[in-house]
Design goal:
This protein is an alpha+beta fold. Helices cover about 25% and strands about 35% of the residues. It is built from four helices and eight strands. The longest helix has 13 residues, at about 55-70. The protein binds iron/sulfur cluster (2 copies).
Amino acid sequence: MAESKETIYLSFPPGVSNKPVVCNLARSFDLTFNILKARISPKQEGHMTIEISGSRENLRHGLQYLRKQGVQITPIAQKISRQEDSCIHCGLCTSLCPTQALRMDVQSRTVLFIREKCSACGLCTSLCPVRAMVLEVENGPWDAIVEGA
Ligand code: SF4
Ligand code: SF4
């Protein structure tokens, strides 16, 4: 059976973030996962970036299961970049960014974009008033898996 390995970003609605839905991927769907980043608070929205692997079929069922639990799934094959000339350092994005990849530098009063912290969730792209944050989507096998889910 063909094995697939993907990196995905998960957003858990309040009430779901403290349930063991990710652990169930291993228990019920024979998937292996590795948590790369996580920010989970009880009764609040949670965010997690995981590497997940298993058979393509199991991966599809596992993603279906997550969706049924209300978990939003974003392919990490997305990359975010900032158009430096466009950013007006208004700071709007800093309150939204779940990984603190965007944060205000108090001394220089400019917004820093720390690329290594970015989980490519895409939240900042719709919020930014000058469209300085740009989402680049890479096509890959993930698209086919999601469409089938
Ligand atoms: S919302 Fe846009 S313009 Fe404002 S600081 Fe963030 S990236 Fe810059
Ligand atoms: S896509 Fe934007 S909001 Fe999401 S983690 Fe990256 S910088 Fe933060």
